[in-house]
Amino acid sequence: MKYVLRYVKPHIPTMVFGFSIKFTGTILDLMIPYILSYIIDEVTPKNDISLVIRWGLVMVLCAALVLFCNVWANRVASAVSRDTIEALRHDLFHKISYLSSSQVDAFTIPSLVTRMTTDTYHLHRTLNMIQRMGVRAPILMLGGVVVTMMIDPYLSGILCFLIPFMTIVVVRISQKSIPLFTKAQQSADDMIRVVRENATGIRVIKALSRTDHEMKRYDAVNSQLNADETRANVTMAASSPLINLLLNTGLVAVILVGAWRVSTGNMKPGAIVAFLTYFTIILNAVMAVSRLITMTSRAIASAGRIEEVLTTPADMKIGVPTQESGTGDRPEPPHIAFEHVSFSYNKRAKNLDNIHFTLEHGQSLGIIGPTGAGKSTLVQLLLRLYDVDCGTISINGRDITTFPLKELRQKFGVVFQNDVLFKETLLQNIDMGRNLSLSRIDEAVSVAQAAAFIAESGGYEKAIAVKGVNLSGGQKQRVLISRALAGHPEILILDDSSSALDYKTDAAFRSALKDSFSGTTIIIAQRISSILHCDKILVLEDGIPMGLGTHEELLKTCSAYREIYDIQMGGEHV
Fold this sequence. Notes:
The chain has helices at residues 2-5, 12-43, 49-97, 101-107, 109-133, 136-151, 153-200, 202-207, 211-237, 239-263, 269-310, 375-382, 405-409, 426-431, 438-447, 451-456, 473-486, 503-516, 551-557, 559-569, and strands at 336-343, 352-359, 364-368, 390-395, 398-399, 412-415, 491-495, 520-524, 536-541, 544-549.
């Protein structure tokens, strides 16, 4: 909570200004019943209508000033809460964008979405309400008690007797409700996860007629969220009827005692009218404080969840490059080197074990193996989306952990296995905010064999739907390849990026890539035809390297590769 409060500090002068306006309006609001009491007890007995009118105008003026001050202060409160949460959301989004893949896995995407939306919304509402009622309600409550003591100390003793009981009710209920609101937010994470999975996989769900099953899954998480929200809200809502009971009991006592004191001549009728008005003001103020505490309880839970993300330390430290001693005749290091690399997602079973190979500048590496063999994991380690458990990965002889992440990733052009197109134009999807020249984009599109379909579909200004659903699988892959090539990368990674291309287009693309791209290429594929011309081929099975060499070498030395070749190519030489 303390970390989140730092976003309020720049707005403290504005908040103080708003509080002073709100304070002025509240004091004027407290004066109105006192003026009414004065008119009834002091002015009316004089039978001077002009005097009544003058004091009535004073009451109207006070009411107008109260309205003006409240509107002005509320506008200030809205501006402060808006700007504060805008800055908080900006930093939260920035932090999420730079979380490592392992940290994102730990938080989960649905939870991060909830923290960015629902939790920040709770903070926004609470900050706004604190500025609106955080000054007004306590002053009305305490000021009302002070004024009633001035009117009649005996009756005000009833209020003083009730205040400790109301405080105990509010504190105890708040202590119980905060953990319940935290649990409710976790249930909201689960519901968003299910909704997100259904939105993403809607076609599969419909194709397999699993709509009823998914409805039951959604009903389960929705019911759990409803139960947790109900438990938290019912617990917090208990404060209102309990406080109402205490205050209304006190109000009955005030009426009885006040009537007795008026009948005995110890109290004037105007005073009892004013006292009842103040008691109503105090009742409303206490209820406002109760609502404010309810919202604050929820906001504290949300602030803790946001703070958890904002204070998460970076787990990918940038090391210091080692100094090479002398130059002499030292041979040029390989472009990419994996040295006995092992990695595990869950830190128990290894997903990659003892990966060891080198690639010289301009060489190509094909990676093949069954599903789940660790092919995509290997390139994620090269990009440093995850850190290796043991071993080292180097580029040009320099450990990748010593590169600033931005500098490291600018070396790559990547097409991931499940890559994403954004709801922008074709040009914006290829350029990706890099301000590339049109000639570079044209060149990349030509190599990716995408020029013809882009021209037929209306050019670079064609609008792409969310996730590229208005493009075919092959068209999407060609746009993604264009994006990767347009930046003239030092290293090109193609992770199963041609699976939707027909053989003719795939062959044309590989031929154009060989002629135009001089960097190092890593190709992950399921088809041997896509990688058999690579300088090196790595065969993976269950994260273990089964063979490394050229196509011809692997046919002779690697049974796993030969089996794949026989299944796909029928044993015929290419």
